[in-house]
Amino acid sequence: MNSRLTTHICRAAIAAALALAVGITAAQAQTADYRVIPLPTSIVADTTRTFVLTDGMTVAYDSSNPAISRNAQFLKQWVEEVAGVKLQLAPTDKKAAIQLTIRKAPAATTKKAKALADMTPQELSAYDISVGKRGLHITANTDEGLFRAAQTLRKSLLAAQEQTTAAATKAEGAAATVALPYATIHDEPRFEYRGAHLDVARHYFAVPVIKQYLDLMALHGCNQLHWHITEDQGWRFEVKALPELARKGSIREQTVIGHNTGVYDGQRYGGYYTQEECRELVNYAAERYINIIPEIDLPGHMMGALHVFPNLGCTGGPYPVWPHWGVSHEVLCAGNPETITFLKTVLGELCDVFPSKYIHIGGDECPKLRWKQCPKCQAKARELGLRDDGKHSIENQLQTWINHEMEAFLRERGRDMIGWDEVLEGGLTQSGIVMSWRGVKGGIEAAKEHHRVIMSPNSFCYIDYYQLKDNRRQPDAIGGYLPISKVYSFEPLQPDDIAADEQKYILGPQVNLWTEYIAFPQHLFYMLLPRLDAISEVQWSQPGQKDFDDFCRRLPRMKRLYDSLGINYCRDIE
Q1: What are the C-alpha distances in Å from 304 to residues 252, 438, 531?
Q2: Ranges for all domains in the chain classified under CATH 3.20.20.80
Q3: Phi, psi dihedrals of residue 278, rounded to the nearest 5°
Q4: Ranges in the chain annotated CATH 3.30.379.10
């Protein structure tokens, strides 16, 4: 059967079917719609019959598993928030209206471990929802799948808000209800890597704001937060062995007004995250099945560090924490042995705090002017026997040497290094991962060389760009124009340029949100939403399911959820 036909649910038929629910009138019941964002892989619905979920019904689950218990609590909370239905948690209730079940693995422990190990990351996130006369049965391979299913149910109930609110549907003292059409739903993500990036170095955002960001990522099925925490404009990560690094390197004396106008606000600006706060966020993200990938951008974008340790620069400074935007010529000295010691100290503590198997070292926008002029850097190049081979300059090879030193250091700790696509310029080791941002060319080149790739081209994924043509109708942005329709149109696998057997090296796509011109949470979420909705279908749904007009018809439900949560977003679509 055509997938579009199997996923189509006729609202008129659903409304008519409500009359069949015993004791519930069409005016009293709210109706779910499983066509959510991102769109599930398969929905087969029987719109002539519904199961009516009402106050007091129970959720059964394995209470011996803390993760499953937490997911059951999430589901209970979300159903009440969205539909007003107050469920009860009853782990041992075999007749519960909602059953949460992990599929049985082979009995032997070794076989069970092997069964999970053999699953793809997508299969680990997969789930099934069955709705019938006995209620809802949610089944998954892992507790993560149960979480994804609970999010889908949460969003399915948003359709009820199109009719009326839970408070308005019931008479005084009556139970809240929601009608769930009979259905069989199977879902799993298209890509294993589903990322969203957040820059907190240009502007600092408090821990509660980061948690909101993570909640929105989880709502959309994202599983990787790329957290950019150091920059020329501020160092935001506490390094206990170097206590002055964050204390002093996080503070700039003032900030430029507008687009490098030369006019400054005269206000000191700063803030950083303690290691305890970082661990708190790591745990919060993990409960939502999100991994936090920290980025320490090196060897450029280091003015925050050079301000505290001027001996690590080629000229010796002084180096102010930058009060304006752009790319500084002042970078870490490649010829100073203390540079490598410093970086290993920083990355060592980073690995202690962040359990992510991925660590991002940046590697972008590192001017080489100082290295060309620096006796120490040139002496190091001679020591390493570097020669300009016509393809890679001596200075590019110096950066590659630093990259390799950091990659080897991270590998000893069981971590994989990610770098922006500039890391290709001096040659990349096979285990390095390329994040392609200057279009898709770098990603295509890397995939053909059998490097793993994260596709994040600025032309489709930089959501610090304006999302409306008329700049006067929206807050300030860095420039560019990236409407939600273009985000939605992105195809990460680039089938015209990457052979089918090489597409496996594309881990997935990521949107990036840089914050030079974003200083407040309201502006941050305005830039994020609803473009995060668009990328979520690029990341999760199969390409044959994508239909922008249909996406736009589903989007108002998400906007109502943002309204109920008090989160700002762009209300226009282009």
Answers
A1: 9, 25, 31
A2: 195-352+456-495+508-565
A3: -65, -45
A4: 3-105+119-187
What superfamily does domain 195-352+456-495+508-565 belong to in CATH? Glycosidases (3.20.20.80)
Residue 573: half-sphere exposure toward Cβ, Cα within 13 Å: 17
Which candidate, 427, 362, 418, 431, places its Cα nearest to that of 394? Answer: 427
**Per residue in 414-454, pLDDT tens?**
999 999 999 888 777 778 899 999 999 999 999 999 999 99
Q: pLDDT above 70 covers what percent of the chain? A: 91
Topology (CATH) of 3-105+119-187:
Chitobiase; domain 2 (3.30.379)
11: helix, strand or coil: helix
Q: In this structure, is the dihedral angle defined by the CA atoms of residues 340, 343, 347 and 349, taken in order, positive or negative?
A: positive
Contacts of 313 (CB under 8 A, 6+ apart): 306, 319, 330, 331, 332, 333, 370
| Single-letter amino acid code for the residue at 434 | V
Q: Report residue 284 CA to chain centroid gap.
A: 14
Contact predicate 248/234, CB 8 Å: no
The 3-state DSSP composition of the chain as helix, strand, coil percent (nearest 5) reads: 40, 20, 40
Reported as half-sphere exposure (CB side, CA atoms, 13 A), residue 572 has a value of 11
d(CA 269, CA 35): 45
pTM over cut 0.90: yes
Q: How many Å apart are CA 567 and CA 526, to the nearest integer?
A: 8
Residue 362, helix vs strand vs coil: strand
In contact, 295 and 281? CB cutoff 8 Å: no
Q: What is the pLDDT of residues 179-207, one digit of tens each?
A: 999 999 999 999 999 999 999 999 999 99
Q: What is the pLDDT of residues 42-82, one digit of tens each?
A: 999 998 999 999 999 999 999 999 999 999 999 999 999 99
Q: Count how many residues are written for the chain.
A: 574
Confidence of residue 112 (pLDDT cuts 50, 70, 90): low
Whose tokens are 């010796």? That residue is 316
Q: Which of 20-24, 27-31, 226-230, 439-443 has the lowest mean pLDDT?
A: 20-24
- Please provide the distance, in angstroms rounded to a whole number, between the alpha carbons at the two ends of the chain: 32
